[in-house]
Design goal:
single chain; alpha+beta; Glutaredoxin; Glutathione S-transferase Yfyf (Class Pi), Chain A, domain 2; 9% strand; globular; binds glutathione
């Protein structure tokens, strides 16, 4: 019986944040496949049993179910003593970037990718709007990473793991990722960490 179970699916960058944290900190964990593309998270039964908010990831540990990737990351940092803040000022800084990530960096990008690459809607006013917003968020993170190798405190923290949710996803959203040279260099620093794995290697994929 693993210590942790993570309800997830491979295409979920939000789930990848938690999966990568579990892997990099060397936890005994197991993925539980969620059939998102066939509507499992929209079913009342799943919502009653797993997450009333209808979202992945969900981390099961010691009889608890935790949701929201930022909160899961903080929980794991506290439990493992790895990748968390060293003091209150760093804690606030980490939360500042994780909130920015949830509100802008991940959310606009993930919505754009979902429409264009998974639902295959083709180009619309909505995808144009989302690309503009995601690009603006990428510019902000790129400018920050021009000044520091990692987002907070000069070392890998859960702020990086939150922001890194979708940056290794291979799909083409029309955002030219190579334009963001500091994000590209940061990705390479993350990829060489002991235990790093691609999202599609860490979590089960829809058949
Ligand atoms: N803020 C949440 C976002 C989670 C999220 O949007 N997950 C997606 C999968 S990547 C989902 O389950 N969406 C279901 C829906 O929006 O109906 C987190 O960071 O955990």
């Amino acid at each position: 019986m693993p210590d942790y179970k993570l309800h997830c699916f491979a295409e979920s960058g939000n789930a990848y944040k938690a999966a990568l944290m579990l892997e990099l900190t060397g936890q005994d964990w197991q993925p539980v496949f969620v059939d998102f593309f066939n509507g499992q998270t929209r079913g009342q039964e799943w919502r009653d049993a797993v997450n009333e908010q209808g979202e992945v990831p969900v981390l099961e540990h010691a009889g608890q179910k935790l949701t929201q990737s930022a909160l899961i990351l903080e929980y794991l940092a506290e439990r493992t003593g790895q990748f968390g803040p060293r003091d209150d000022a760093e804690k606030r800084e980490i939360w500042r970037w994780m909130l920015f990530d949830n509100h802008k960096f991940t959310s606009y990008y993930a919505a754009l990718r979902f429409l264009l690459c998974l639902k295959k809607t083709g180009e619309t006013d909505v995808t144009g709007f989302l690309r503009e917003r995601a690009t603006a968020a990428y510019r902000i993170v790129d400018a920050h990473l021009a000044k520091t190798p990692f987002m907070v405190g000069g070392r890998l923290t859960i702020a990086d793991l939150s922001l890194a949710g979708y940056v290794f996803m291979p799909e083409d959203t029309g955002i030219v990722l190579t334009e963001f040279s500091h994000i590209e260099a940061w990705k390479q620093r993350i990829q060489v960490l002991q235990g790093w794995k691609h999202p599609y290697e860490l979590m089960p994929r829809t058949a």
